[in-house]
Amino acid sequence: MSTSEYSVCIQGLLTEIGYRYEPFPPYDADYWGPFHGWMLHTLGPTSSWGAKQLAELEHAAGGVIERVYPFASTQMKLLFAKLTAIAILIDDSIEDETVHKHLVQFSHRLYRGEPQQNGLLALYYTNMTELSEMYGDDSVLRGFAIVPWINYIDACLMEKQLFNVERGRSKNRDALQPSTHEEGLALKFPHYLRSKSGIAEAYAAGIFKATKDQHLPLTRYIKVLPDLTFYIEVMNDLLSFYKEEIDGETYNLIHLRTRSLSASGVHGSGMNAEWTCYDTLRLLCDEIRQATRSIDGLLRLEDCERKLQGDPGINDIDEVDLEIAMQWRGWRDGYISWHLECRRYKLGFLKFAGTGDPEPSD
After folding, report:
1. Phi-psi bin for 353: left (phi > 0), alpha (psi -120 to 50), beta?
2. pTM for the complete prediction?
3. pLDDT tens digits, residue range 320-361?
4. Buried b / exposed e across 85-97, counting CB within 10 Å, b at 16+?
5. What's the CATH number where 332 sits?
6. Which Pfam families match (predicted)?
């Protein structure tokens, strides 16, 4: 797939869903000061990472949370930023056998009420409990916000097992390969695997809980959660794919889904009518487009924006509708803007009218 083909797909998608560039907010010392101190003095000592790696982690975890939760309290943003930083660190440290040994025991110890023996995982657990307290008596939303962080550990372990098998097969041509029949029947597995490690439901819960005191009726937004979690997971896959192609990464949603669809006999745009990664990219763009329209429609985003602009014809929108819709809008645009500007993803070649043509940030 050429850069031009990728660019046309992504630009077309973002134009059609009405993406609006959201610039970085002004520096918030109340957010970045405590987060930097925590990274340096609390998280840092639990890992083997050096100062440069920790600085990059701070920038990524702190930056994305600040961008996607523009209405959230400092306390809420800090908890999500801390958990995000730990999750990234866990994923990047799983090849360490000592860390892996403790990860295997994480959920077992959690369910038995036993303390974690690893400092990183103890910190992870502490921040989960603090986030849980933010949800008060809302047990349903708390479940959405907390359980995915627990499942994430087991998802990392599952991915490690699967990836090790893949890596072994690539090194040993005589090793038993999965049959085309098996790949073709497992059409839903690629997204199942992605959904287990995406923590998307937890991030979605954060959209509808900006502060400890905010209580938005579950019935006003619950029906968007399937499409919203899909949006969170797959938009990241779409916007990180260019970088992963440069790095030669093939164990991701787009490649795995391409394999499944190709093995199932679906015809694509390849020279011999085979299904390709480009076909999967276009398919995912279509699915994201449909999911975005569904979320916008269910949350009445357009009507809410017209109401805020003073349209007298919109008289059945209340303050709760406005809060929900604007918090979704903040996530939706902030999430994309962060990806486009983060140097990690190498997307500086993507330019959009009305965005100020942002340059990737350090």
Report:
1. beta
2. 0.90
3. 999 999 999 999 999 999 999 988 888 988 865 444 444 444
4. bbbebbeebbeee
5. 1.10.600.10
6. TRI5 (PF06330)
